[in-house]
Amino acid sequence: MIRLALFGSGVGSSLSPAIYTGFARGRGLRLEYRVYEAGPGGLAPALEAAGDLHGFNVTKPLKREALRLAARLDQHARAIGAVNTMVAGEEGWEGFNTDWRGFLDSLRLYTASPPDKALVIGAGGAGRAAAYALATWGAGRVLIASRTGATARKAAEDLGGLGAEVEAVSPGGLEAAASEAEVVVNATPLGWDGVSTPITRGFREGCIAVDMVYRPLTTPFLRLAAASGCTPVDGLWMLVLQARENIAIWLGAEADPMELRMHALEALSRG
């Protein structure tokens, strides 16, 4: 039995179990993927309670915390300063960041060229991954915004020197930044309730709006962006494209993102 898990806050509604167990079922693999609620400081005890695992994912608010548990880190996790995927290794847990690749691949479904200017709203592990992906892909300027501004400034400082200008945006400058950005990313939890959104106006017509929230599939952020003439990219694409990377790490197998998305949509339709 291949035992995998997800640790984080609000993980009961995650579609990850459906994605990984659906993939395994189609290949005759015995695999379980369980979710464990864990808040700040709770990863180590939750991991101990989960027992023997082949690997696991972490989500908010544990992506920075997971760094401290890793015996080894891949170059992307180290540069981003956040881990979302772990696999058991000979010397302990090996930490990876697959968020950045899942985000980038989802964006590249809609554009072949990096933007001159992009705005990432949210400076946690997911926001850092998006900013890293944009900067390393070749974006000209990457603007990062957060609720207080402090975490955005820290992220901009940490991610400088990647080939792009990475700058923090003050909380009051969010709409002005969005009005100039070719790509706008929601890397906050706002939207999970089906009502909230990090921005209500200011989208530049023709922009690409990427939401990392995938439940609901069409969030208030994406509805507002579409109404402003932008192309909406739902968060399910990032989830399944990141899952493709995780499957390669955990199982050494290739996965078709369309198949993974189908498993997720089936689970979503069941409520």
From TrEMBL:
Shikimate binds at S14, L15, S16, T59, N84, D99, Y214, Q242. Residues 6-85 form the Shikimate dehydrogenase substrate binding N-terminal domain. The keyword RNA-binding does not apply. Keywords: Amino-acid biosynthesis, Aromatic amino acid biosynthesis, NADP, Oxidoreductase. InterPro entries: Aminoacid_DH-like_N_sf, NAD(P)-bd_dom_sf, Shikimate_DH-bd_N, Shikimate_DH_fam, Shikm_DH/Glu-tRNA_Rdtase. GO terms for molecular function: NADP binding; shikimate 3-dehydrogenase (NADP+) activity. It comes from the Archaea. It catalyses: shikimate + NADP(+) = 3-dehydroshikimate + NADPH + H(+). Gene3D superfamilies: Leucine Dehydrogenase, chain A, domain 1, NAD(P)-binding Rossmann-like Domain. The keyword Ribosomal protein does not apply. GO terms for cellular component: cytosol. GO terms for biological process: amino acid biosynthetic process; aromatic amino acid family biosynthetic process; chorismate biosynthetic process; shikimate metabolic process. HAMAP family: Shikimate_DH_AroE. Homodimer. Belongs to the shikimate dehydrogenase family. Involved in the biosynthesis of the chorismate, which leads to the biosynthesis of aromatic amino acids. Catalyzes the reversible NADPH linked reduction of 3-dehydroshikimate (DHSA) to yield shikimate (SA). This is Shikimate dehydrogenase (NADP(+)).
